[in-house]
Write a structure and sequence with these properties.
Elements: E1 6-10, H1 17-27, E2 34-38, H2 49-59, E3 65-67, H3 71-80, H4 97-115, H5 119-132, E4 136-141, E5 144-149, H6 164-169, H7 172-175, E6 185-188, E7 203-205, E8 210-212, E9 225-228, E10 233-236
Parallel strand pairs: 1-2, 2-3, 5-6, 6-8
Antiparallel strand pairs: 1-9, 4-5, 7-8, 9-10
Helix pairs in contact: 3-4, 3-5
Length: 238
């Protein structure tokens, strides 16, 4: 792509299929002119994760679409990677990957997958997909460098040198935006703006160099949000 006309980013979806589709249709993505980055957490908590899973499977690898891995994809992967499915999510060891995933919204995803009658197929295809999902993306547009990660990063370290646990789980920049003194624009999901008492829309902090995109998709008063980072135009679910 010679010139990106719209640099689009989606916040966390969390199995809210209808809300996601509502926003995606509003945006009118054009792969010839737009670049769209998804920040991860496609699954869990929401009541309709399977259509989201199937949509991501269908579009992964499409022109000018980037799908990052979130901590919920990581939990899914670790819970089901080496575990038998015959016992479902029954595991009373609090430290186990199965328990962690199930207790953080995985039960809803697992139940929805079971109801399709294609549990094994969906699990296998999604596991393979997660393995392909990058933990970060770096994009240059209109003279700025953009860093996309699901949860957090150290602005002073190259992305390729950062710990996966930080990229997937931490919340330092979201809680303490002043930690970012660099020139790159860092775009995060993972931490709902509602938890930080910042309203319910994407937030530009640190003189616009830190963007928070998780707008509480699974909350009653939450939204799924997409933003054009070049203009700060925002689309949200109804």
């Amino acid at each position: 792509m010679d010139k990106i006309e719209r640099l689009l980013v989606f916040g966390d979806i969390h199995g809210k299929w209808e809300r996601f589709l509502n926003v995606y249709q509003k945006v009118g993505f054009n792969p010839e002119h737009d670049l769209m980055v998804f920040l991860g957490d496609y699954l869990d908590r929401g009541e309709n994760p399977v259509p989201v899973m199937e949509w991501v499977l269908e579009h992964f690898g499409s022109k000018n679409m980037i799908f990052l891995r979130g901590n919920h994809e990581q939990m899914f992967y670790e819970a089901l990677r080496d575990e038998s499915l015959k016992d479902g999510l029954v595991d009373f060891r609090i430290e186990s990957p199965k328990y962690l995933w199930g207790d953080n919204g995985g039960k809803e995803t697992y139940r929805a997958m079971e109801e399709t009658g294609r549990l094994k197929e969906l699990t296998t295809t999604w596991m393979r997909l997660i393995e392909k999902m990058p933990l970060y993306a770096e994009v240059e547009a209109e003279g700025h460098k953009y860093w996309f990660v699901h949860a957090d990063c150290n602005p002073e370290q190259p992305l390729e040198n950062q710990r996966a646990k930080t990229l997937l789980w931490s919340r330092n920049l979201a809680k303490y935006p002043s930690l970012h003194q660099g020139e790159q624009i860092i775009v995060l999901g993972h931490t709902p703006v509602q938890a930080l008492r910042l309203g319910s829309k994407p937030c530009w902090l640190s003189q616009g160099r830190l963007v928070l995109m998780d707008t509480g998709s699974f909350l009653e008063n939450g939204h799924i949000s997409c933003a054009n980072l070049l203009t700060k135009e925002v689309w949200q679910s109804n």
